[in-house]
Amino acid sequence: MERIDDRPEARLALPSAEPIRLVDRSGGRVPGAPVPAPDPQTLARLLRAMVVGRRFDRQAGALARQGRLAVYPSSFGQEACQVGGALALAPADWLFPTYRDCVSLVARGVDPVEVLTLLRGDWHSGYDPERHRCATQCTPLATNASHAVGLTYAARRKGEDVAALVLMGDGATSEGDAHEAYNFAALWNAPVVFLIQNNQWAISVPVRKQSAAPTLAHKAIGYGMPGVRVDGNDAAAVHAVVDQALAEARCGHGPTIIEAMTYRLDPHTNSDAPQRYRDDDESEPWRERDPIDRLTALLRAEGMVDDAALAAMAEEGERLAAQVRDRLAEDEAPDPESLFAHVYATVPHALARQRATLRDELRGEPDEGPLGEPGAGLPAELRGGAHDELKEV
Amino acid sequence: MELSLAQALNRALRDALREDPDVVVYGEDVGPLGGVFRVTDGLTAEFGEERCFDAPIAESGIVGTAIGMAMNGLRPVVEMQFDAFGYPAFQQVVSHLAKMRNRTMGRLGLPVVVRVPYGGGIGGVEHHSDSSEAYYAHTPGLTVVTPAGPADGYSMLRDAIALPDPVIFLEPKRLYWSKAEVGAPARTEALDRAVVRRAGSDVTLLAYGPTVPTALEAAEAAHADGCAVEVVDLRSLAPFDDATVTASVRRTGRAVVVHEASTFGGYGAEVAARVTEQCFHYLEAPVLRVGGFDIPYPPPKLEHLHLPGVDRILDAIARLQWESGWTPGAAPGGPAGAGPALPAARSTS
Ligand SMILES: Cc1ncc(C[n+]2csc(CCOP(=O)(O)OP(=O)(O)O)c2C)c(N)n1
Fold this sequence. Notes:
- The complex is a heterodimer.
- Chain A is α/β, with parallel strands linked by helices.
- Chain A is built from 15 helices and 7 strands.
- Chain A has helices at residues 40-65, 79-87, 102-107, 112-115, 117-120, 129-132, 144-157, 176-187, 219-223, 235-253, 284-287, 291-301, 307-330, 338-341, 349-363; strands at 94-96, 164-169, 192-198, 201-202, 205-206, 227-231, 256-261.
- Chain A is globular, with a radius of gyration of 24 Å.
- Chain A starts with 39 loop residues before the first helix and ends in a 30-residue tail after the last helix.
- Chain B has 2 domains: 2-181, 3-Layer(aba) Sandwich (Rossmann fold); 195-348, Rossmann fold, CATH 3.40.50.920.
- The interface between A and B is large, with 49 and 49 residues.
- Thiamine diphosphate sits between chains A (100, 139-141, 169-172, 199, 201-203, 264, 268) and B (28, 57, 81, 85, 88).
- Chain B: This is 3-methyl-2-oxobutanoate dehydrogenase (2-methylpropanoyl-transferring).
- Chain B: GO terms for molecular function: branched-chain 2-oxo acid dehydrogenase activity; magnesium ion binding.
């Protein structure tokens, strides 16, 4: 990431062979890193968000195993990527997460229960994207990437200083949508950072079967933007690299692809069967690179946290987990009529009729057929036939 | 032997791979994992990476490469992991796969099978439960079929692989685990035929894939109320078996199409139109459609409200202008010809 001149082309160096690392496995600082380390307060915030995030993640996993969530794709082992990325964003910036990235949403301050709305099966997305500046969690792979480019385009038009962080998996980079978004971003000089969490696996498929590129970060060069590799289990490094890429993006130097090297310690979701495709001992070395242990060691060694501070973080995690458990235990069923409420800005007549059909069904009454209550209708000035009541003839 | 639908499909792929060296199977996670529904379980182990392998996550590329393979003598069978994840491949399917024979004046046919697990009822979060059949069936050049049980699963997949044209092979995912006796490698009816699953003289239910068992359940319930329901399993959505369907509806004089997909512009609209065209003078009532509501597929906790169940089907039957006003729950004796006794309204439940 080191640059000797300010011309945009100067950013187009090949990614370093070794991922950027600021903190080594035993918690020592790595000398000579090309990005400045976050300040002590930021490091403490990163640790806190990872501790709380992991506790949330473990709680959600348990709820999935108990059948209280429909499914849960775990963030376990990837906390440094999700927290390091989310905390690098300014309040006005946007996050574009995937199904994998619940911890990043919690780190960004979204209510954990609202985060779980999707996976609990209550609705497709539980939080207000605008309020939190977090797009919906994206399941169709790589399709969120171009949204970020468009959103920042609009921001620029409106004179807003907004950058965006797109989270995506290694497997998602194979999709055509990823390539199109990278191209748009570079072409439009969009203030977008693509953070690829290379957790080595896409369900059962290892990354070597996704791409013949030397690294996923190498792909960036072909689009005309820089590609950077970072140790994805080093929260300080992820934060620093994302922070710098966002700063570059903001001052008009365009997008960056960051490949964070990490590992999916858990199955793809609670319904996956990893014993079919990978050996257990493969994950052992990754457990030793635990992102929380590493940052804890650094902060302790440098006297930036003590036992009391660590206990307080753990305590906060416990409180959050308890809150999630309690609030999910209430388990109110979603309102059946919500099915029809948000398909269009106003409910067209035909849909209102179907809502009446469902009401009849729920009351155990026979469905009356095609004539029913009228829809609420469009605002009067827009109203056409579709919102008119059917006249009985 | 007793097999689940998933096992029967696995059997079909295995037998096809054994018998024809040109068959290759690929897609996302179909290798060592055996597919997320285990339909390709064990195939890489038995036939090697050359014949059954994992593709990068790129549906358009998967179908595009399959087209290229078929242009040069292979018979690819590719998997879209879930219905909604087949959409990135839509351009390849519609603009090339479906049209190649036509564009080349018949010189180049594409024997490609695209397997698509489809439909809901498995508690899947968004994008995992779409019924995408109408998009495909609307596209000339595609053969679109859907088995509703293990015996057909085996037979229809074998036939689909043998066909010289592209097939969209829709697998009702909520029936993957339902078991039945399968005489593999025996074949059932021809790929393009609809089949009468239950005979009845009062009304015809036209169903396919995931709604066939529901239609049969509804027929049983109506039978208890004195209404004799015939159930036709369409099997082949394109081409459409007009002969079987027309014969049935002309006999019964009433028809209801049942599918999971949203009703508006759905496949049922085509069926209703055809039946009306073919059977107008035999019909005692308009052909009705029973389907999902015209809404995006709901989240897991609400999907049961959306999916057409027995009651919604019985309500539709009750609206078929029975002269004596049949409603589900009516006394036995039931409808007879054009002037039936009452099928009775749904029991309050
Ligand atoms: C367009 C599309 N195709 C297929 C899928 C099914 N699918 C869900 S997750 C997944 C693997 C994704 O791997 P990766 O991008 O590496 O992310 P990870 O799950 O490892 O975080 C697949 C194939 C999908 N969600 N979207």
